[in-house]
Inverse folding.
């Protein structure tokens, strides 16, 4: 997603793939977080703020991410917060 961040169709397909990979799979969420996936998702959202379909897909992806994170002992979204907010 990072390499092709300026191509909305590629970004949207990457977001959809991540959405499916993160669905209730803790190992995939951990791998995505460790690989810098949250920062890449943020970059995609910032690069395409006027693409409603991609934004909708990104929200679904983040929802899957947070639903798995909420199973951990730390507060839901703690990784997202510390990664995306300076």
């Amino acid at each position: 997603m990072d390499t092709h961040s300026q191509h909305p169709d590629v970004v949207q397909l990457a977001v959809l793939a991540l959405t499916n990979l993160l669905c209730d799979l803790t190992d995939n969420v951990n791998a995505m977080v460790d690989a810098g996936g949250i920062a890449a998702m943020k970059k995609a959202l910032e690069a395409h703020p006027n693409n409603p379909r991609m934004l909708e897909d990104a929200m679904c992806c983040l929802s899957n991410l947070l639903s798995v994170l909420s199973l951990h002992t730390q507060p839901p979204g703690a990784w997202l917060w510390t990664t995306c907010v300076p």
The chain has one domain: 8-84.
